[in-house]
Amino acid sequence: MHVNGQPHPTTPDLTLHQLLRELNINPERVAIAVNDDFYAGGQAPDRQLDERDVVEIVKVIGGG
Fold first, then answer.
1. Could you tell me the sign of the dihedral formed by the alpha carbons of 31, 46, 15, 25, in that order?
2. Under 8 Å CB-to-CB from 20, ≥6 apart: which residues?
3. Which terminus of the chain is more solvent-facing, meaning fewer CB atoms within 10 Å of its CB: N or C?
4. Which region among 39-43, 46-50, 53-57 has the lowest average model confidence (pLDDT)?
């Protein structure tokens, strides 16, 4: 699996929410793409991840 362009170890039964916890990422503050599926972080399903998946996590920055 690749996360933000870098290889990342995959463990059996790893889910997207577990990955975010491992990386200490608050899902409410990011947007996520898994392969060709895009989610607002807080609405991302807790889907199973596979060693072939490509995950991109983008921090949302508010401005004014």
1. positive
2. 26, 27, 30, 41, 57
3. C
4. 39-43
DSSP letter string, 14-31: -BHHHHHHHTT--GGGEE
Supply the pLDDT for residue 36.
93
Alpha-carbon dihedral sign for residues 18, 23, 24, 30: negative
Owner of token pair 């199973």 = 48
Where are the extended beta strands (E) located within the chain?
Answer: 2-3, 6-7, 30-34, 37-40, 54-59
3-state DSSP call for residue 33? strand
For 62, counting Cβ atoms within 10 Å of its Cβ (0-12 exposed, 13-18 middle, 19+ buried), the class is exposed
